[in-house]
Amino acid sequence: MAVEYTKEGTIGIIKMNNPPMNVLSSAVLQELHGHLDAIEADGEIDAVIITGEGRAFVAGADISEMMNMDPSAAAKFAENGQGAFDRIQALKMPVIAAVNGFALGGGTELAISCDIRIASQAAKFGQPEVNLGVIPGFGGTQRLPRLIGPGKAKELIYTGDMIGAKEAYEIGLVQAIVPGFKVDEAGEKILNEKGKPVQDNEPVMAAAMKMAGKIATKGPVSVQKAKESIDQGLDLTQNAGLKVEASNFANLFATEDQKEGMTAFTEKRPAEFKRK
Fold it and tell me: Does residue 69 sit in helix, strand or coil?
């Protein structure tokens, strides 16, 4: 399986595992769609984490598959990738990208379809498609400007430059950076036989699990409605968005979880939410 799906408690975990660099082919995207089917059908998931195995989160789309495509095949390929990432963005629960390594092209596009991005120090981001004579096709020209502003997005897309976790954090592409390399007892990076630091994916997954676990303690329906309100509001005027917010706020007062949450607060005890 090039895409693995597991579930720990109420947290769903998607791991891209298509060695050596977890590239996105049509077959990989189809596997991803299948796991999204399972997540959408599961009524007991509070958060989803997407990460990669090995050195890469996702190092891009499969160039060997793309290079001989005609415009019709390329359109279908773009629609397939856009469709998968649209589904990730539209999941009712929060999605956290645990970016462990290279997130290039389709990898950056996958990361920015998630709600929150946590980056390993080993993470690298970029939209290098212009180096291949094409443009981002899985949502990069649309999501990236909305996330970091059109000026910086245009710079990255036009130049094809790759940036590290620190710059990604500075421009608002990621929300946190965690250690990404193995160290010895003195805190020095451990090097491999080629003299390069040995990557460590555990800290970024631990950070993502910690955040997902924290989200899972909150009112599930209210978290979902918060996501819905934010995402819908981004495409509306502020006044229209405020109406969406007010409607979702009001409707939550018809839920058992609202009653339980407020009762638990007044009784100074942890709430026991029922997803109702």
Answer: coil
Helix or strand holding residue 215 (H, E) = helix 202-216
Q: Residues of the chain whose pLDDT is less than 50?
A: none
- Considering 4, 31, 129, 193, which one is annotated as catalytic? 129
d(CA 109, CA 85): 8
Cα 15 off chain centre by: 11
241 and 165 within one domain: no
Q: What is the pLDDT of residue 175?
A: 98
109 is catalytic: yes
Both tokens of residue 271? 């709430």
Residue 276 lies in a domain: no
**141 and 255 within one domain:** no
How would you list the strands of the sheet with 124-126, edge to edge?
A: 56-58, 102-104, 124-126, 162-164
Same domain, 144 and 258: no
Question: Active-site residue among 53, 109, 245, 272?
Answer: 109
Are 131 and 229 members of one domain? no
Rounded CA separation 137/76 (Å) = 11
Question: What is this structure's pTM?
Answer: 0.95
